[in-house]
């Protein structure tokens, strides 16, 4: 009876953890109710497990309370708590409490739990394997937050999925196939993501207890097909998700289902169905009080209207998005909405409104390209004022005609007297004009010569830079190969040998402390191999060679993000056809700017923006760090080492500007000519 009561409490905890969204009073009420049920459990093991899971629930709300339930579970276990199984559970649940507040400590505790749970006896091996799958999934999620999405995928494939297979849990296996697919989708590998979505669907097919999981799986698979522009397949997934949506009407994924469905129908030009799904999604998101989802749906609806040239409707949706982004800290979202509002107003010939939104966009962007923006604004102002100016010009012409008629007679009389003077003046003027034209021609020839010389020097600089860059990158590539293939292989061989030694130690049951030190050395060696690979990738990123500039910059931003520093990357009008030397130059400039931000700025957020317009390439890197005095030349040259960036920009005939203030962050703006 007590064991069944313990299972009931654990089930209640799972339900609350999966979907609890009530007030603090409700939270306390549920906790007190569950705690009273836990106190009725007589057996020590189930009671401790229930207390551990109650700690897991509170880890998202109150870490002090979460730790108190772990200590209470330890007291219930008493001497039993020293077994490898329960020691592993203690480390696992402590890592869960540290997950948000101290990720480094959490990773350490997860590895402690792994070291203990993998050695448990046969009677607890099944439960231990289930916890090991959970801890590796959480460990990988922490790596993903640090921008190591590829490492997360490797952990899912090499650790979590084999453990799920070993315990025969098809639901756990299906969920982790979906996790792999979602990460591959975010990395742009849509084909492999589709394969993993299909594997997950096969495992969860027909399982009534997995309705929610299958529902979310169909939605995410449809999103992947949309990104891959496979509209027939996205339609099939949406139809399947629609059948399940009726069975899970209160799912938190209902708004997302309508958002993906609306985007699909907009892509295939079925505006009526697209509008219906977007409106249903907005209604569901508002019912769930999910403001972020409301804003996302409104922007998706705007995108669909704009894609189908429904500019008036698109403008209305953008205006509905506006209050949501104005409440947020994200400058990128504001910039995007302001820019789109300005473009839509221009297409609707609402030039005065377009001026207003371009000014808002300019204020948020804070870039060096103010002259270009101002020219655009003036052009719009001229168009807006055209009708008034035309009226004024017409009135002036009418008055001039009247004056001309009154003066015509006077001019005829004066014409005869002036004719002789004009002839004489014309002769003198012709002689003077000939001399002037001759001088002007000579000056023009000199200017053309200087311009040709300037272009020749610039081309020589570019050729020199190109040759220097080619040499540097070849050397980087050679060193990267040597590190990866040579030293990397040696370290991997050392790891294999140490693992073999560790296996022998396990068999011989040698001192546990030495055993753990050996595993610590293996773990440190793993980190060394990972660091070596990171250095090799930085020296010559493969994504730049095989996937293009945009993918390489996105990988760079993800790789340099960590728990303390978030890096957002945004592009506009970039293509995949830039010359290889130009791509390398842009990549190294952005890499140098991000390195400076990581080392010196102390920022928690960095925004990277790249765009192309009228044959120019623009780079903008902004942070919310401590800033510096940009007018202090000595500081600029020696303090943060920007001379390397300046040299690259000058060689590319570009412009480089810094906008920084002590205590208020820094912005770096670069304009480059795209060369062959």
Automatic annotation (TrEMBL):
Signal peptide: none annotated. InterPro entries: HATPase_C_sf, HATPase_dom, His_kinase_dom, Sensor_HK_TwoCompSys, Sig_transdc_His_kin-like_C, Sig_transdc_His_kin_sub3_dim/P, TPR-like_helical_dom_sf, TPR_rpt. The keyword Repeat does not apply. It catalyses: ATP + protein L-histidine = ADP + protein N-phospho-L-histidine. Residues 370-397 form a coiled coil. It is an enzyme of class 2 (transferase). This is Oxygen sensor histidine kinase NreB. TPR repeats lie at residues 174-207. It comes from Sphingobacterium hotanense. The chain crosses the membrane at residues 412-432. The keyword Acetylation does not apply. It is found in: Cytoplasm. CDD domains: HATPase_UhpB-NarQ-NarX-like (cd16917).
């Amino acid at each position: 009876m007590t064991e069944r009561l313990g299972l009931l409490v654990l089930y209640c905890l799972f339900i609350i953890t999966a979907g609890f969204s009530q007030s603090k009073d409700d939270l306390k009420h549920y906790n007190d109710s569950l705690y009273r049920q836990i106190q009725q459990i007589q057996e020590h093991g189930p009671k401790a497990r229930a207390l551990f899971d109650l700690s897991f629930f509170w880890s998202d709300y109150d870490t002090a309370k979460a730790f108190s339930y772990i200590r209470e579970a330890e007291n219930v276990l008493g001497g039993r708590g020293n077994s490898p199984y329960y020691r592993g559970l203690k480390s696992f649940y402590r890592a869960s409490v540290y997950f948000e507040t101290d990720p480094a400590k959490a990773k350490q505790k997860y590895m402690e739990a792994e070291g203990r749970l993998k050695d448990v006896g046969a009677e607890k091996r099944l439960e231990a394997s289930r916890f090991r799958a959970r801890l590796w999934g959480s460990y990988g999620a922490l790596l993903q937050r640090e921008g190591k999405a590829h490492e997360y995928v490797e952990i899912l494939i090499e650790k979590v999925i084999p453990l799920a297979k070993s315990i025969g849990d098809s639901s756990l296996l299906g969920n982790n196939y979906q996790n792999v697919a979602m990460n591959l989708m975010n990395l742009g590998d849509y084909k492999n993501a589709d394969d993993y979505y299909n594997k997950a669907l096969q495992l969860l097919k027909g399982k009534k207890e997995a309705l929610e999981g299958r529902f979310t799986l169909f939605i995410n698979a449809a999103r992947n097909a949309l990104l891959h522009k496979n509209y027939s397949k996205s339609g099939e997934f949406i139809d399947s998700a629609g059948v399940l949506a009726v069975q899970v009407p209160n799912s938190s994924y209902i708004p997302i289902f309508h958002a993906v469905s609306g985007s699909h129908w907009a892509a295939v030009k079925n505006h009526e169905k697209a509008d219906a799904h977007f409106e249903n999604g907005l209604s569901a998101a508002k019912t769930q009080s999910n403001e972020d989802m409301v804003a996302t749906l409104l922007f998706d609806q705007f995108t669909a209207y704009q894609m189908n040239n429904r500019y008036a409707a698109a403008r209305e949706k953008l205006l509905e998005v506006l209050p949501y982004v104005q409440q947020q800290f994200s400058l990128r979202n504001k910039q995007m909405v302001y820019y789109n509002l300005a473009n839509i107003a221009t297409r609707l010939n609402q030039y005065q409104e377009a001026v207003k939104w371009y000014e808002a966009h300019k204020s948020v962007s804070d870039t060096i390209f103010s002259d270009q923006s101002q020219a655009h604004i003036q052009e719009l102002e001229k168009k807006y004022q055209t009708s008034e100016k035309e009226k004024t010009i017409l009135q002036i012409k009418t008055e001039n005609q009247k004056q001309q008629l009154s003066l015509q007679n006077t001019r005829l009389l004066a014409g005869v007297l002036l004719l002789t003077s004009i002839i004489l003046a014309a002769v003198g003027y012709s002689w003077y004009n000939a001399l002037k034209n001759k001088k002007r021609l000579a000056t023009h020839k000199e200017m053309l010569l200087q311009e040709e010389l300037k272009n020749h020097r610039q081309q020589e600089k570019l050729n020199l830079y190109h040759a220097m860059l080619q040499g540097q990158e070849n050397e980087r590539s050679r060193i990267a190969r040597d590190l990866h293939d040579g030293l990397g292989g040696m370290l991997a061989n050392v790891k294999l040998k140490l693992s073999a030694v560790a296996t022998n130690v396990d068999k011989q049951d040698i001192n546990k402390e030495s055993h753990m030190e050996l595993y610590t050395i293996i773990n440190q060696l793993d980190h060394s191999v990972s660091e070596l690979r990171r250095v090799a990738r930085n020296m010559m990123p493969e994504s730049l060679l095989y996937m293009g500039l945009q993918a390489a910059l996105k990988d760079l931003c993800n790789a340099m993000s960590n728990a303390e520093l978030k890096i957002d990357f945004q592009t506009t009008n970039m293509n995949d056809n830039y010359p290889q030397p130009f791509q390398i130059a842009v990549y190294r400039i952005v890499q140098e700017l991000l390195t400076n931000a990581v080392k010196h700025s102390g920022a928690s957020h960095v925004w990277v923006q790249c765009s192309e317009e009228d044959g120019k390439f623009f780079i903008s890197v902004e942070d919310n760090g401590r800033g510096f005095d940009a007018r202090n030349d000595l500081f600029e040259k020696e303090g943060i080492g920007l001379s390397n960036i300046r040299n690259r920009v000058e060689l590319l005939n570009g412009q480089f500007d810094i906008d920084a203030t002590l205590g208020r962050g820094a912005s770096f703006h670069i304009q480059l000519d795209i060369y062959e």
